[in-house]
Specification:
This protein has helices spanning about 1-5, 10-25, 30-50, 50-55, 65-80, 85-110, 115-140, 165-170, 185-205, 205-215, 220-225, 230-255, 265-275, 285-310, 315-344, and strands at about 160-165, 175-180, 185, 255-260. With about 350 residues, it is mainly α. The radius of gyration is 20 Å and the shape is globular. The model has no long low-confidence stretch (mean pLDDT about 85). It comes from Andreesenia angusta. This is Branched-chain amino acid transport system / permease component.
């Protein structure tokens, strides 16, 4: 019976998704088109949560800092006025470099907060956001001199709240074209997400992956076995931060616009909720959980406003349900996880 407990959450949300689709009365092509876009924009964020869970650190809410690294890189590239392929490649390089530095800092801090990593990572996410806002609202235009004045607001201090990234949206245009539902796009970003998923899957079967699992199971025994526990834990956070930065780059590229101050907000909660919907726990997560979760969670996320409109004649209820869905999923998953532990 315990074998089937891991399917409680996915089955529950599958049923809710089916009910939501029926109530929303939307076409299959609309849902498939939205899922295509959301798979590209959000898939890598779920993958970013897997390494810290493997290492026994729970949900890494500081992936927002990884997203901030990507946004800093994009601001620099847009400020330089670089176009398409060259600009996006530079954004990837800068994003990864920023993420490596920030990931090492976060990993060091979380190693000082053993047993309380999830709370600590949440606080780090908030702190990182505020430092980032201070730099780009006040520092840019004063301490940091921009290459182009067009990136600044009219006062000359602070970056505009939205920057045009449309030049990168057409990056894959005409390359492996596909049509999913009512959306025309490219197979390239889908393959990119799948390749990163394959890389994370390979990580779980590598030497580092086995060390992460060992540390996640028992840190004391891992130390006795000669594993550098702190180093493994830090490596998982660095990988998580780098993956999150790549995920945010894909999000910006797909949207064609950079929301400088709000683009990274809430992605940690929604990503955690989606991963848990896929059947992951606070101690065990896989690539399969990530891909199942993004399909189930975002299907319900897509149809909930229209279902609320049709059921209660009030679309606002559907919008509120989205927030309830994200936070409620995490609470529900916590309860199920605690029940599993008590039965073990």
């Amino acid at each position: 019976m315990r074998k089937y407990n891991s399917y409680y959450v996915p089955i529950c949300f599958f049923v809710l998704s089916v009910l939501g689709i029926m109530l929303a009365e939307v076409s299959t092509s609309f849902i498939l088109g939205e899922l295509y876009s959301r798979f590209i924009r959000n898939g890598v964020f779920l993958l970013a949560l897997i390494p810290p869970i493997m290492a026994g650190m729970g949900i890494n809410f500081s992936i927002t800092v990884g997203a901030i690294a990507a946004q800093m890189a994009m601001v620099v590239v847009i400020d330089l006025g670089l176009e398409k392929t060259g600009g996006f490649l530079l954004a990837i390089v800068l994003s990864v470099l920023f993420a490596l530095v920030l990931g090492n800092i976060i990993g060091t801090v979380l190693n000082k907060a053993k047993g309380k990593e999830m709370i600590a990572s949440m606080v780090i996410g908030f702190l990182g956001t505020n430092i980032y806002l201070l730099i780009f609202m006040v520092g840019y235009g004063t301490v940091i001199k921009p290459f182009s004045e067009t990136t600044l607001i009219s006062s000359g201090i602070g970056v505009k709240s939205m920057l045009d990234a449309a030049r990168f949206r057409s990056l894959y245009e005409g390359v492996l074209p596909i049509r999913v539902g009512n959306v025309s796009g490219s197979l390239v970003p889908v393959l990119a997400v799948l390749v990163l998923g394959l890389a994370v899957w390979g990580l779980t079967r590598s030497k580092l992956g086995y060390h992460m699992k060992a540390v996640g199971e028992d840190q004391t025994l891992s130390e006795k076995a000669g594993i550098d526990v702190d180093r493994v834990r830090k490596s998982s956070i660095v990988l998580s931060t780098v993956l999150a930065s790549l995920g945010q780059l894909m999000f910006i590229q797909n949207m064609g616009v950079l929301n400088v101050y709000t683009g990274h907000l809430n992605l940690d909660v929604f990503s955690a909720a989606a991963l848990l919907v896929g059947g992951a726990t606070l101690k065990n997560a896989s690539v399969k959980n990530a891909f199942i979760g993004i399909l189930l969670f975002h299907t319900l996320f897509i149809v909930s406003p229209m279902a609320g409109q049709n059921l209660f004649d009030n679309v606002a209820l559907g919008e509120y349900f989205r927030s309830f869905l994200a936070y409620g999923t995490i609470v529900f998953a916590f309860v199920v996880n605690l029940r599993r532990e008590s039965e073990a």
